[in-house]
Amino acid sequence: MLNQKRESLIDQYITAYNNFDVPGMLKVLHQDVVFENYSSGEKTLAIQGIQEIQKQAEQAVKLFEKREISPKKWIHQTRYTEVHLQYHAVLAEDLPDGSKKKGDTISLSGKTVFEFREGLISKIQDFS
Fold this sequence. Notes:
Blueprint: H1 3-18, H2 22-27, E1 29-39, E2 42-48, H3 50-63, E3 64-76, E4 80-91, E5 105-117, E6 120-127
């Protein structure tokens, strides 16, 4: 897949994410998509399949008043594209673990690795 096509798919995904548009996010994902989240080197979430991603995304929408992913650097490799990014969000409700309250902001930098299959995003790994 050409790098331009990869970037277009990722841009569509990020735009939909920033706009709380779950159907738009799903539109560019492969049916068997895998999502993994890593925080401080530990895997904190792993889900597979578009239905599970949809459930997770719909739950996450309720958590935030605002959220924005801003790509800063793109690195294309043979099997994947790595995007270094800045993330900023404002909570719409308290986090279940009590670590953050409604109205608190979350700001992080990290990277997301995207893999592709059959012209769609097939794996997303978030690292922060």
